[in-house]
Hints:
By secondary structure, the protein is of the alpha/beta class. It is built from 13 helices and 21 strands.
Amino acid sequence: MKLKLLTASNATAVAGLDFEFSYNDIFKRAKKLSEELGANVKKAAIFADNSPDWICACYAVWANGSTLVPVDSKSSAEELAFALADSQSDALLVSRENMATAKEALEKSGSSAKLVDISEFFANAEYRDPENGAVIERDLSDLALIVYTSGTTGNPKGVMLTFANMAANMTAVEDAKYYFPKIRVFAMLPFHHILPLMGTMAMPLSIGGKVVIPPSLAPEDLAATLQKHNVDMVISVPRFYEMLHSNIMAKIGQSKIASAMFAAAKAIGNIKLSQFLFGVIHKKFGGAIKFWISGGAALDKKVWRDLYTLGFTIREGYGMTECAPIIAFPRIDNIKMGSPGQALTGVDVRIADGEIIVRGANVTSGYYNR
């Protein structure tokens, strides 16, 4: 069996403040870079910030039949060198801004990986338009990703994830009704982490959705991008929601009327009423967001409770890189504040000797070279 990753069409796939790429654009760029990589490249690392180029490079690796090794764009030369050597990557795909660090890392690692400046490559390549309906797909048994953990207790470990692992999570979250065709997802977290890679890129692009990328994480850039592209879903980490909460509550505290409205909304506890009362706030984020997703750590209950009072539909999940990544997530009609919800379909969870034990088709087979 195969997993369909990307289907060529004229629909918009990726957009931002000053760019827009169709599925055909992503497809033809991916195919062109795939030809450049060639059959000898079995594993390819990407070392770049979020951008359409990152996405094109990712699908180029997959179209080539290769395994993707996403690396934090803020990594030092030493950290990149470790990932290159440990993963035995045959190619290193780099943005122009990261080229100096990439060259230093190649020298330190002794790697002979093929170095490609994706900024220059995609700007200068000549492309062939694909036929609508053409697909990039892979066998479920193929190794899709080697994703390095943080390494807080030692050297990072490369988590091996197959396309079957990816498919298990993708099918489960689609069954949970959070993703739907033409969904618009805000990609503010770096793609080298498994949650944004899956939740804000691979999943929406597999079902014809649109990925919206802000130029930076500056508040004005986030707001401008959200206002231009009315997104349906935001995926972020608790720190973002803490900052959002702090900024909004500070402004509410400066107004007696706003404070009274907040107190009334809190007492009534009706999210539709809250969204009406605080409609001006929601319009600053485009006014169309259905789901605000938090992951990576537990969200403070006061932050969650206050944002709910303001009309924010917060959902919190639980997972880890080794599980591709989601283990549990609340069902749309069954939200409990402070809880990451129920185990996803196809995932079994139990607690033994104080540890959470997980079994499912989404679970990694192990760590690369370990």
